């Protein structure tokens, strides 16, 4: 389940252009791309993990999981796999990735980012207490039109900012999960043109592939300008979101700016964005959803530093203009109690629920073994929720293809606020042990 996306209709000319490019790509491009001198790369990963949940009351009962309606259990098994095909030649490249997963039904319903931001899988069905799914997360063809221009068609990665846990600059891609910032995010179906006459300047223009057939009001288009000046990089982006309608709109009119500078060996970066409205809205105490109109401002500041030992430190502060103040959080809790529907639950996004957040991430490589230790924390300043997430990743063979991971995630309530992420979480602790094989 996910929030319904407003219908966006595109003009026949745009649809015709997309069709023409697709015909060219299918008829001519593969012949050149798959020539004998083209390089191909097939890779993938298979993994499985066992997780245990620990709740203080032993019942996994909370406002977003009354009487354990999600069916969470002490132990759960998750299996995942992905296959990626990359083909490159002098004229362009092909990028394709498909992800498979099998997980408990309770996990599918309790992951807010699957409900709020990510599209439904292309194929998913329930078998017993588990859901099996498959989704194409990348399917794009890139063509080098000239030495300074390239065109990309299909499901692709669009403009991304510098932030690890959050990125206000990211105007078009699905929401990422701050608790799992390295997780793979589904691409966006679009046509994009990048022009780079010099290494100091690049301009990208894109439009999302049409979902309808009739009017210009449905166009969703954006631009990204990248400028390099010495140790600094500056980026400016804009998104024309088409006609705004409905309570939930993932593409409001937006503008953003981002900058990065290398200063005395440390990387300093910042992002700021203005949206005409919130992408999800708010929940009233009677269980009805309402728009959260703008302008909505969000900003991020970050620091990254690599120590001589090889350890990497990342620190970020995020002001979330789309987050809720105390009154809105209390209204959400009351609304979910009165109307606990999936549509209402999907408004809840831990890590982007309130206004102010900090993130700390320290990665320590264990030299000589290919293993690493990560210590990560996320703190919601408004609500006093602290999430601790240390992990150990161990290489188990000489090739580095087989790895094992032990991870702990703990949610701690420092303020005692009733409408905090800590109070809404069905469990306080989770320990996960897993194996992965890359090929």
Model description:
Helices cover 12% and strands 48% of the residues. A hairpin with a 2-residue loop joins strand 7 and strand 8. The N terminus is likely disordered. The strands form 2 sheets. The protein has a 20-stranded antiparallel β-sheet that branches. A two-stranded antiparallel ribbon has the order 13-14. The protein has one domain: Porin. It is globular, with a radius of gyration of 22 Å. It is mainly beta. The chain is built from 7 helices and 22 strands.
Primary descriptors:
20-stranded antiparallel β-sheet; mainly beta; 22 strands; single chain; two-stranded antiparallel ribbon
How are the SSEs ordered, and which strands pair?
Elements: H1 12-27, H2 29-33, E1 39-54, E2 75-89, E3 92-104, H3 105-110, H4 112-116, E4 123-127, E5 130-146, E6 149-156, E7 188-198, E8 201-208, E9 221-229, E10 232-240, E11 254-263, E12 266-277, E13 282-283, E14 289-290, E15 293-306, E16 312-319, H5 326-338, H6 342-345, E17 356-366, E18 371-380, E19 385-388, E20 391-395, E21 402-413, H7 421-424, E22 429-438
Antiparallel strand pairs: 1-2, 1-22, 2-3, 3-5, 4-5, 5-6, 6-7, 7-8, 8-9, 9-10, 10-11, 11-12, 12-15, 13-14, 15-16, 16-17, 17-18, 18-19, 18-20, 19-21, 20-21, 21-22
């Amino acid at each position: 389940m996910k929030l319904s996306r407003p219908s966006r209709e595109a003009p026949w000319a745009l649809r015709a252009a997309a069709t023409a490019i697709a015909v060219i790509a299918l008829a001519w491009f593969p012949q050149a791309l798959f020539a004998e001198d083209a390089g191909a790369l097939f890779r993938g990963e298979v993994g499985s993990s066992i997780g245990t949940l620990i709740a203080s009351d032993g019942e996994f009962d909370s406002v977003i999981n009354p009487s354990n309606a999600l069916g969470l259990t002490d132990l759960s098994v998750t299996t995942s796999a992905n296959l990626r095909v990359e083909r490159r030649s002098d004229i362009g490249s092909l990028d394709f990735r498909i992800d498979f997963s099998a997980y408990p039904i309770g996990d599918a319903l309790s992951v807010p980012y699957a409900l709020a931001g990510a599209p439904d899988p292309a194929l998913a069905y329930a078998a017993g207490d588990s859901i099996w799914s498959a989704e194409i997360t990348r399917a794009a063809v890139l063509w080098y039109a000239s030495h300074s221009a390239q065109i990309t068609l299909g499901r692709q990665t669009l403009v991304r900012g510098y932030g690890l846990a959050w990125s206000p600059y990211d105007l078009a891609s699905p929401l990422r999960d701050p608790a799992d910032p390295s997780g793979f995010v589904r691409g966006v179906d679009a046509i994009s043109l990048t022009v780079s006459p010099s290494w100091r300047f690049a301009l990208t223009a894109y439009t999302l592939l049409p979902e309808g057939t009739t009017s210009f009001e449905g166009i969703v288009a954006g631009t990204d300008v990248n400028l390099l000046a010495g140790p600094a990089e500056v980026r400016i982006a804009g998104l024309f979101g088409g006609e705004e309608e409905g309570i939930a709109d993932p593409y409001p009119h937006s503008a953003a700016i981002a900058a990065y500078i290398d200063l005395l060996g440390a990387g300093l970066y910042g992002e700021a964005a203005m949206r005409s409205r919130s992408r999800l809205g708010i929940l009233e105490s009677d269980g009805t959803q309402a728009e959260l109109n703008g302008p909505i401002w969000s900003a991020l500041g970050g620091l990254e530093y690599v120590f001589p030992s090889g350890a990497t430190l990342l620190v970020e502060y995020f002001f979330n203009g789309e987050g809720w103040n105390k009154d809105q959080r209390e209204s959400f809790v009351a609304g979910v109690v009165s109307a606990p529907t999936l549509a209402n639950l999907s408004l809840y996004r831990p890590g982007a629920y309130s206004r102010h957040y900090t993130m700390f991430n320290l990665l320590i490589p264990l030299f000589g073994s290919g293993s690493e230790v990560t210590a990560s924390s996320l703190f919601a300043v408004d609500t006093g929720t602290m999430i601790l997430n240390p992990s150990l990743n161990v290489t188990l063979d000489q090739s580095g293809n087989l790895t094992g991971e032990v991870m702990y995630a703990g949610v701690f309530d420092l303020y005692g606020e009733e409408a905090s992420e800590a109070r809404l979480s069905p469990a306080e602790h989770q320990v996960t042990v897993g194996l992965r094989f890359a090929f």
